[in-house]
Automatic annotation (TrEMBL):
Source organism: Paenibacillus validus
Keyword terms: Cell shape, Coiled coil
Any one of the GO CC terms: plasma membrane
Rod shape-determining protein MreC beta-barrel core domain mapped to chain residues: 132-280
Gene3D superfamilies: Rod shape-determining protein MreC, domain 1, Rod shape-determining protein MreC, domain 2
Pfam families for the chain: MreC (PF04085)
Signal sequence coordinates: none
Record's protein name: Cell shape-determining protein MreC
Any Gene Ontology biological process: regulation of cell shape
Family: Belongs to the MreC family.
């Protein structure tokens, strides 16, 4: 019985194969399809459509995801490149400005060395204190900085050293001169460059509203004129001789008319100080 059953199954499979082959040969010869063939073909096509369409959508989705990831990585690289370019451009501009300032400073010190035997120690401004009336620089006792040393910028005098620590110093600016604390009661003794004679006076006050210095103790017969350049006289034992301070923009009578008073426009700017110079005078 088992052998008979196997023979029937084998005969059935051979018959099915022959039927399919015969249909293929018949179709190839007659050039048209019968309705069972059309039904089978349409069923297979419909089934393939149900399978291939979702598969194609899923495949396209993963392809789009891959493309988006590639675009994301490219944008990430481009953003990093752009950020580095912007940072390098900013750094280059800052270095160019610093280089220009240092070149100007070097030219200034060379000109001063031709006039005097002073040494100029360049320092960076670390911070502004006391509402812009004082600054901190990165030179101190280790750099042989001492109190009362004059401090200048490229343009002219800006103040003097008041306090010194190991690595830093505080500098009292000219903007800190007032009636109560005129550089610790030490006024700036100055002279004025004129064509014929030297004028003499003291700078004892800074007018914050006008942004000008006030020069006092001027003799009424002194030939000081508007437009003259004011320099330190070296007689006050604090500021060495020959440092430019500013120019005269006004002259008038002082209190009681005994002496005259002049308004001085400082050469130095006190708002954007970055590099300054501490003047070291050789001891005689």
């Amino acid at each position: 019985m088992k052998l008979l059953g196997n023979k029937r199954l084998l005969i059935l499979m051979l018959g099915l194969i022959c039927f399919i082959a015969l249909m293929g040969l018949t179709f190839g010869k007659r050039g048209y399809e019968t309705w069972p063939e059309k039904f089978v073909k349409d069923s297979i096509s419909w089934t393939q459509g149900l399978i291939y369409k979702p598969v194609g959508m899923i495949t396209g989705f993963f392809q789009d995801v891959g493309q988006l990831w590639t675009i994301y990585e490219e944008n990430k690289v481009l953003r990093g490149t752009l950020s580095r370019y912007a940072r390098d451009t900013t750094r280059l501009n800052d270095l160019e400005l610093q280089n220009q300032r240092l070149q100007d400073a070097l030219g200034f010190t060379e000109r001063q060395k031709q006039m005097n035997q002073y040494k100029f120690r360049i320092a960076e401004v670390v911070s502004f204190v006391q509402q812009g009336k004082s600054i901190t620089i990165n030179l101190g006792e280790k750099d042989n900085i001492r109190p009362n040393m004059a401090v200048i910028s490229v343009e002219g005098l800006i103040g003097r050293v008041t306090e010194v620590s190991a690595f830093y110093s505080n500098v009292q600016l000219l903007t800190g001169i007032d009636d109560k604390a005129a550089l610790e009661s030490k006024a700036i003794s100055v002279t004025v460059k004129t064509k014929e004679n030297e004028s003499f006076g003291l700078i004892e006050k800074y007018d914050p509203e006008a942004g000008k210095l006030v020069m006092t103790k001027i003799d009424p017969n002194d030939p000081l004129q508007v437009g003259d350049t004011v320099i330190t006289s070296g007689k006050g034992l604090v500021f060495p001789r020959g440092i430019e301070v500013g120019k005269v923009i006004e002259r008038r009578e002082g209190d009681f008319g005994i002496t005259h008073v002049a308004t001085i426009e400082p050469f130095a700017s006190f708002n954007h100080l970055r590099e300054v110079f501490v003047v070291e005078v050789p001891e005689s």
